[in-house]
Amino acid sequence: MPYPAQLEERLSFDGTPIVLRAIRPEDEEAHREFLESLRPEDAHSRFFGFPRRFDHAHLVRYTCIDYENEMAFIAAEAEGARRTLGVVRAIRAPGTKRAEFAIVVRSDAQGHGLGHILLDKLIRYCRDA
């Protein structure tokens, strides 16, 4: 499936303009910085073990997705550095309506409701898919 640009949303988070959108291959470097910025306990909660450095092969797996069976939405700053603040991902079992999901929010952005915003985005997407 082509990149789902129609799913992009702009909103304010903690007074900062952000964009919620599907992840793209060109997000690789921002995604590396995001993942490597996580505190070890946050990374462990998401990955159950965590390499401190992500190589290209890992990052391709996270950023080059098949939009038909998988979806990953990122929350990124809409201006300035455009850092990735969080990501929510769902992978659907082929031929079913069942999916597994994972969510992680940048350690320094936790506790302000971004996880809820990302999860709400994913739920709305899955209901419509």
How would you describe this structure to a colleague?
This protein has helices at 28-37, 40-47, 56-63, 114-128, and strands at 9-13, 16-22, 70-77, 84-92, 99-105. By secondary structure, the chain is an alpha+beta fold. Strands 1-2-3-4-5 form a five-stranded antiparallel β-sheet, sandwiched between helices. Strand 1 and strand 2 (16-22) form a beta hairpin. The longest helix has 15 residues, at 114-128. The two termini are 13 Å apart.
Key words describing this protein structure:
129 residues, 4 helices
Count of DSSP strands: 5
Mean pLDDT: 88
The largest sheet is: 5 strands, antiparallel
Range of helix content: 25-40%
Short synopsis of the structure:
This protein is of the alpha+beta class. Helix content is 32%, strand content 28%.
Secondary structure layout:
Layout lengths: L8 E5 L2 E7 L5 H10 L2 H8 L8 H8 L6 E8 L6 E9 L6 E7 L8 H15 L1
Antiparallel strand pairs: 1-2, 2-3, 3-4, 4-5
